[in-house]
Structure formats: C-alpha cells, structure tokens
Write a structure and sequence with these properties.
By secondary structure, the protein is mostly helical. It is 56% helix and 6% strand. It has five helices and three strands. It has a three-stranded antiparallel β-sheet with strand order 1-3-2. Strand 2 and strand 3 form a beta hairpin. Helix 3 crosses helix 4 (115-124). The radius of gyration is 22 Å and the shape is elongated. 12% of the residues are buried.
C-alpha cells in the first residue's frame, strides 16, 4: 500500500503539529526547572523521580496559585507541579518590585536615565539581576514595560523615563 500525495502531506502536517506540542512542553518543563533552581526557598530534589503530577500551563498557574494561597495547610507534600505556581507568583512579584524601584530611581533623578544608571540605583536599593550582562537583562525588562499603557517610555537605546512624564504640558517631561 502506497500513500497518496495528499495523505502523505496530511500525515506530515499531523506530525509537525505533534512536534510543536512536544517542543512547547519541553520549553515549559525547562522553564519550570530553571525557575525552581533560581528562586530561593524551594530547591528541587534530586533524590529520585517525582510522582507523576500534571504541570500546569502558565495561564492557569496564577489561578491555582491564588487558590493554593488560600489553603492554610497542604494536605500532601509539595511536588514539582504544585511548586511551580508559587515560583511564578514570586518571580512576577519580584519583577513588579524591580519596575517600581526603577520608577523610583527615575523620579529621584528627575531626568531620563540609561539602563546602566538605573541598574546602579537598583543595586544601591538591594536589587540584583542575574546573568552575564545585568544591564542587558534590565534593559530587556524595561523595554518590555515601555509599551503602550506601560509605566515607562523608551526615549532611545536603553534610555527610559516614566510614562507619565509625556503627559506634561511643557514637553520637558520632568
């Protein structure tokens, strides 16, 4: 039995869809492992395989994090699947605190600042950014929050000001 061209193309499309699903699952698991290794207070155990626990998607993680936060005592030991939402919530909280502190640094300076100058202010406040190039990591975070409706506006390469500064009548911004 030979496949027709249409049948072969349909089978190829199905296999590519399956590969895309697997690639997304692999990326999610790699992200969860990385978060578990980076965030303090919740080290992953290497003692053996965890029981099979379904891992939630990031979209449903915040809903289950708020539900698990309302429970006073967990009824069973925390596995990888139940640990992930707390880590994601903590990472988001840290990200919001970092942006809020960056806005404080910008307001205190009363002028637009380069990401390197903002990083110096954040370091003085006790924040640390991981990676080989903390300025680039901070620049990426600031750039992502400088879109429409965001708290920042980007004035040039790695130069930022508070978004409300553009609403001033005089056009100076501060």
């Amino acid at each position: 039995m030979f496949l027709t061209e249409d049948a072969a193309e349909a089978a190829l499309r199905d296999l590519r869809r399956q590969r895309d699903v697997l690639d997304r699952q692999i990326a999610d698991h790699a992200l969860y492992l990385e978060l578990g290794r980076r965030l303090p207070g919740r080290p992953l155990s290497k003692s053996g395989p965890e029981p099979a626990t379904p891992i939630e998607s990031p979209a449903s993680a915040s809903a289950s994090a708020s539900a698990s936060a309302s429970a006073s005592v967990p009824s069973e030991p925390l596995g990888l699947g139940s640990r992930v939402p707390d880590d994601i919530v903590a990472a988001r909280r840290h990200g919001r605190a970092l942006i809020a502190a960056a806005l404080d640094v910008l307001h205190e300076a009363a002028r637009p600042l380069h990401a390197g100058e903002i990083l110096q202010g954040l370091t003085a406040l006790g924040f640390a950014l991981p990676g080989h190039d903390p300025v680039a990591a901070l620049n990426t975070r600031l750039w992502k929050r400088s879109g429409p409706g965001g708290p920042l506006r980007r004035l040039g390469d790695a130069v930022y000001a508070p978004a409300e500064a553009e609403d001033d009548e005089d056009g100076v911004g501060f």
